Amino acid sequence: MTLVLVIAALGMMRVLTQHWREGAVLLGGALIVAAVLRVLLPVDRVGLLAIRSRPVDVLCYSAFGVVISVLAVTITRGSFDFG
C-alpha cells in the first residue's frame, strides 16, 4: 500500500506543478501497481488494497489504470490555463 501511495503522491506533485500528463500517467501507473500487488500478495498481506474480491479488485485497478494512462498520453490539445 505504501508503494502505491508514494507513486500516487508523486503523480499528484507532477499534476500540481503543471505537468499534468506525466502526473496522470503516474496516477495510472499507481493503479496498475496496485493491481499487480493485489494479484501477487497473499490475502493476509494485502491490507487496504483489498476492497472486494480479488478478481474484481484486479479488474478495476487495472482497467482504471490503463484508461487514465492512455487518456493522458493520447490527449494532444488543451491545457489548464484559465487566464
TrEMBL record:
Regions that span the bilayer: 27-51, 58-80
InterPro entries: DUF3017 (IPR021385)
Pfam annotation, one family: DUF3017
Domain of life: Bacteria
Record's keyword terms, sorted: Membrane, Transmembrane, Transmembrane helix
Identification of the protein by name: DUF3017 domain-containing protein
Originating organism: Pseudonocardia alaniniphila
